[in-house]
Amino acid sequence: MKPHKHPEHTDNIWLALEIGNSRLHWALFVGETLYSAWDTDHLPESVMQQLAECQTLNDLLEKIFPQGESLTNTLSLCPLLVASVVPSQTAIWQTYPNTRVITLNQVPLKGVYPTLGIDRALALWGAGKMWGFPMLVIDTGTALTFTAADANECLVGGAILPGLGLQFATLGQQTGQLPVVEMQNFPSLPRFALNTTEAIQSGVVYTILAGIKDFIEAWLQLFPNGKIAIKGGDRTLLLNYLQALHPEIADSLIVEANLIFWGMREIVMGDSTDGIK
């Protein structure tokens, strides 16, 4: 989604950036309201070097989204909040003059372990604060992750496995004869395939779906009233399959792409000293 023209009320504007493994995810907030969200590729070094020279919000948006619509040049640089799972990128973004990097110790979840990904923590916190705990978040991104917390906002735990794209790519790149298969919504994917491409598609898709179903069933055994939210780039594809195979599961899921941004908003609005409220 491209940024819109500038909002009518320009007080308390702030920019959120999630640095993912594959892409950059952006959100423009006006106070507590998410005004616009969009994705870009990781930016080239030449653009990164120019960020520190930006003087207005319009200058910044032109650098990070060259095809976007212009904002008024009278808007000063707004705070940029960064949540990153790519350490090499984090330091680069700190060249921007008004950056705040959100770290794990700023997320109020209880019982977290030191290496829990900030993306998983923020998505879980955002989902729980929006829809209530207990909460399980399924992220269908580069990695497929499960992250859960109980009614006391304490981390229950989770799991990580390669996502659809990684599984397809690994088979194509790490074997002698198997082809690289692209991700797509296969309308009638046979479970027992009669050619190599469909065999790969079947193996990856159906085992991921089985894993998602198993984790959801285990979660509901632990917390019968627990909620489940799903996000990530492959959510629509996987939801289509779940709807066809297990409609009762698909219908129970909260589908929300912006969970991490809701988590970042909770951090911002809960901090009375950062000047963004």
What does this structure look like?
The protein is of the alpha/beta class and 277 residues long. It has nine helices and ten strands. Strands 3-2-1-4-5 form a five-stranded mixed sheet, with helices on both faces. A hairpin with a 2-residue loop joins strand 6 and strand 7 (143-149). Mean pLDDT is 84; it is low at 1-9 and 272-277. This is Type III pantothenate kinase. Belongs to the type III pantothenate kinase family.
List the helices and strands and how they pair.
Elements: E1 13-19, E2 24-30, E3 33-40, H1 45-51, H2 57-64, E4 80-84, H3 87-93, E5 99-101, H4 118-131, E6 135-140, E7 143-149, E8 155-162, H5 164-173, H6 196-222, E9 227-231, H7 235-245, H8 247-250, E10 254-255, H9 259-269
Parallel strand pairs: 1-4, 4-5, 6-9, 9-10
Antiparallel strand pairs: 1-2, 2-3, 6-7, 7-8
Helix pairs in contact: 4-9, 5-6
